[in-house]
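Aim 2, interim progress: modelling of the heme C-bound target.
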Amino acid sequence: MSMRSTAVALLSISALPAVGAQTSFEYCTVCHGANGNGNVAIHAPKIAGIEPWYLKNQFAAFRAGWRGAHADDAPGNEMRPVAAILTDAEIERALGYVASFSPRSPAITVSGDVAHGKELYSACAACHGAAAQGNAALHAPALSGRTDWYLVTQLRNYRAGLRGANAADSNGQQMRAMAATLTDDAALNDVVAYINTLR
Ligand code: HEC
Ligand code: HEC
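Predicted structure of the complex, ligand included:
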């Protein structure tokens, strides 16, 4: 059985309320992989080591439909019902669970022109930091040590308006404007290839 069909069998949307009511959040790892280190086969990124404030912002974004609501966003469509089903108190508990993961350095899957990526990244550093370490005050998450294919997908999602298109989503709107400056797919790969050197 493929990973995707396993996830679907265990987590049909109608089964989620019962799962959410349990105190254990181990089902997160069915999609996000052992210790939340990501599962490329079902496009579920590494969440180990993610900033708690950023995780909360993303749950709010999924719940509001700023993320994961667009018909062309299949991975987002998978995550949105998970976020929608959890109460605020459960999200607090899920944060504690995610914080217990041991983050691993993910495999490098994206290659590109690192020198060009470095030039492009100079515009990103203002918010994400020179070492891509993130900046909580600006609501900009760390990008280093993350699943690289996921970063490319998100840049493409912002550019296509699958994410960051809602007027109420000020963080996403800022990022969407930045993604729009990366005009071709080569530029997306180049900037992520550079981010890969910042681990
Ligand atoms: C059915 C599969 C599935 C389950 C179960 C699931 N996720 Fe996800 N999650 C995904 C996918 C796929 C994405 C990527 C969405 C995208 O590309 O926008 C995602 C995205 C996320 C993100 C956004 C990461 C980022 O960098 O913005 C967070 C945070 C997250 N999940 C946390 C969790 C937590 C915590 C749980 C358990 C309570 C959980 N997920 C359960 C599939 C799942
Ligand atoms: C003006 C500040 C700002 C700049 C400049 C900026 N970002 Fe962002 N970025 C953000 C914010 C804020 C978020 C979180 C958006 C949200 O909460 O949805 C974000 C999110 C992201 C994400 C999604 C991460 C995830 O886990 O889903 C990626 C990828 C990203 N930025 C890459 C870049 C790259 C590459 C550049 C340079 C081309 C850049 N950013 C420039 C503010 C910025």
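Residues 7, 11, 25, 27-28, 30-32, 42-45, 47, 50, 55, 58, 67, 75-76, 78-79, 82, 94, 98, 153 surround heme C (ligand 1) (CB under 6 Å). The two ends are 34 Å apart (CA to CA).
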